[in-house]
Amino acid sequence: MCKGLAGLPATCIERAKGIKTKLGILLLKPENINDYIIPYSDKPEKFSKPQRPSQLEVLQWRDSLEKLLLNNYGLLAFRAFLQSEYSEENIEFYLACEDYKMIKSPMKLTSKAKKIYEEYIEKEAPKEVNLDHFTKDIIVKNLVEPSPSTFEIAQKKVLTLMEKDSLPRFLKSELYQEMIK
């Protein structure tokens, strides 16, 4: 064991082990993937085991972040990559907004909007995403009367940020390069 690892808090080591496990699962050969359950899901009933994509599908992820995010396997790989870089707040915010848009009940909409704001938007939030003050001000005004589009501008900005910053790094990563092979 490295000298440096002994000094790390146990939580960091456990998180690193979890990320290593997730990345290992993604790199399994196609015939073995169905033997494993991907370990992350807040709502298991909605989550199905992703099929390993074809090489062509993986190559198409270079075209747009949307293509990557629409593929369950791609989403898991991208999320694992962001976790390995300790920058998963953007994808988590994006996914929280996607879930938020599906809510029909005004009461639940208000509750979820408050939760998203507190977790991702407000100053020094636990998973604060990088948004300008203008966008944050729009969200605060939208929170007076939440609607499915309350976070739309912020979600688009975060998506653009991931597309320009995180996606190019993901495409250069060892994980993506292995998936192409």
From TrEMBL:
Domain of life here?
Eukaryota
Q: Secreted among the record's keywords?
A: no
All residue ranges annotated as the RGS domain in the record: 64-180
- Identify the InterPro entries for this entry: RGS, RGS_sf, RGS_subdom1/3, RGS_subdomain_2
Q: Which Pfam families match?
A: RGS
Q: Which UniProt keywords apply?
A: Signal transduction inhibitor
What SMART domains does this protein map onto? RGS
Matching SUPFAM superfamilies: Regulator of G-protein signaling, RGS
GO BP annotations of the record are: negative regulation of signal transduction
How is this protein named in the record?
Answer: Regulator of G protein signaling 5a
Q: Upper lineage ranks?
A: Eukaryota, Metazoa, Chordata, Craniata, Vertebrata
